[in-house]
Amino acid sequence: MFPVLQIGPFALPTSAITLLLGVWVSAYLAERVAPRFRLNPGAVSNLIFLLLGIGLIGARLSYLARYPSTFLHNPLDILSRSPGLLDPAGGVAAAALAGIIYVQRKRLPLWTLLDAMSSPIALMSVALAFSNLASGNGFGRATTLPWGIELWGAVRHPAQIYEMLAAGLIFWLTLPVNNWWKNAKPGVIFLSFIAMSSAARLFLEYFRDTSPLIFEDFRAAQFVAWLTLALSLWGLNRKLQ
Q: What is the DSSP code string of 213-228?
């Protein structure tokens, strides 16, 4: 865990820098792959930053609506940069709504757009896993295996590194330059990305120590992963028929 990057007199939050770098590189990649899908790079870039902006605003407003007492003593905390004052579900919902409106107004082909965004999202997942490693979030279960890492008072599975490697592999597999996507129908790359990501989450969730349990050893995220995997495979089957 290395939460702070010290550069001379400046102490920079490693997690935040990693996420910002991930957003920038992923947006650049999206612009580069857009022409392969006959999409306007500018429209794709605008969509990315629209989703980010609306997502952050939606996440903060959703948190405010759920926990208004948090801001009573200091209303300026609404402008805080703390990620702990964000509601991820609210942010995703707001970003999804904004994305749907943008795609409809620009008349962008939805499945083709999702295909183009698959490898950039996978790359962003690599950055997110590295960010969790830097901050100590998303840590793994205690283990006696020799590659365990010391974190939060115990030797644990390096769950963040497992997720980084899985996301890196999915990123490589979803790159549109690979020959196996040459004649793929619109939507096949994206549905394959969702299926691979769900399968990875289903497996890797076992090593995490931070996810809520539904049953004795079955986690909520695994239930969602099972459902998402089934739906994506069903969609792939329809696309490939």
A: BSSSS-BHHHHHHHHH
Phi, psi for residue 6 in degrees, rounded to 5: -95, 115
pTM given for the model: 0.85
- Residue 44's CB: how many other CB atoms inside 10 A? 22
For the chain, where are the alpha helices, taking DSSP H only? 14-33, 41-66, 88-106, 110-135, 159-174, 188-204, 220-240
Please say whether the beta carbons of 193 and 111 come within 8 A.
no
Q: Are 138 and 155 in contact (CB under 8 A)?
A: no
**Residue 136 DSSP label:** T
pLDDT one-digit tens code per residue, 124-152: 999 988 888 888 877 888 888 888 888 88
- 159 vs 209: CA distance, rounded Å: 9
- The string of DSSP letters for 48-102 reads HHHHHHHHHHHHHHHHHHH-GGGGTS-GGGGG---GGG--HHHHHHHHHHHHHHH
